[in-house]
Amino acid sequence: MKFLGVIPARYASTRLEGKPLISIEGRPMIEWVYKRAAASSLDKVVVATDDLRIFDAVISFGGEAVMTSPDHPNGTSRIAEVAIEYQDYEVIINVQGDEPLIEGAMIDALIEPFRENHDLVMATLKHKIDTYEEVENPNNVKVITDNKDYAIYFSRSPIPYPRTLDMKNYYKHVGIYGYKRDFVIKYSKMRQTSLEISESLEQLRVLENGYRIKVLETPFKVIGVDTAKDLELVKSIIRENKISI
Predict the structure, then answer these.
(1) pTM, whole model, 2 decimals?
(2) Residue 183 near residue 231, CB atoms below 8 Å
(3) Which of 24, 41, 52, 63 stands the most exposed, by the fewest C-beta atoms within 10 Å?
């Protein structure tokens, strides 16, 4: 079984224009993501972009990039376009392009269930939430699972409802996904569903169509760079911990 890592990267961003090319310790953010993802067990990593500036930046540091349509409504659709072209890979791992501190071990944890269960079509990650303030934040997507670690529901609201507050029940969804290649192509063609639209969460489309999502727990907490404040936090962590690529 071969695994392909795909990093969707757009230049446009409502809060941080040109985000993939923003410099972190002298290197563009997309290089941090690419090289840290490549340190995993993935057989290949490619950046999927619709912007020549990003494409050229990836090629310049020795990475691999593919140009995709500028008309994709979301990252899943962009990944499906890449999946159609890379027919030799059975599983696609979707790595977020704005998480420069992604750990290779997180990707490896996502790869393992596909090796163990060939019927699995989709998997993702979660980590423990420490404070109820984080639970209440709608920007933190929460997930609840059954006793076999398959997702029951994802929500921006606190789930489960805290009739008796017990922090061990709260998990934050980590937005990295693994898909069987054929499934992500099928998934990208599914119509939007009512819960997906209500919560603005694409993964609910999978559950609403009757498919199962395996959810693995990870000890790692990644920081997505959505704002200038996030960027400064990432830079400080890199400096304080002397992290390099």
Answers:
(1) 0.91
(2) no
(3) 52
Distance CA 221, CA 208 (A): 28
DSSP for 67-112?
Answer: E--TT-SSHHHHHHHHHHH-TT-SEEEE--TT-TT--HHHHHHHHH
Arithmetic mean of pLDDT, 115-143: 94
Question: What is d(CA 172, CA 223) in angstroms, rounded to the nearest whole number?
Answer: 12
Q: For the chain, count helices (H), then strands (E).
A: 9, 11
In DSSP terms, 171 is beta-bridged to 128
First-last CA distance in the chain: 28
| Tokens matching residue 81 | 């376009």
Instruction: Confirm whether 108 is domain-assigned.
Output: yes
What's 197's domain CATH number? 3.90.550.10
Number of structural domains (the chain) is 1
Structure tokens at 78: 């962009």
Task: Give the whole-angstrom CA distance, residue 92 versus residue 94.
Answer: 6
Q: Are the C-beta atoms of residues 33 and 97 closer than 8 Å to each other?
A: yes
Instruction: Return the bridge partners of 128, or none.
Output: 171
CA–CA gap between residue 60 and residue 52 (Å, rounded) = 12
Q: Is the dihedral of CA 72, 138, 34, 39 positive or negative?
A: negative
Find the domain containing 220 and state its range.
3-240
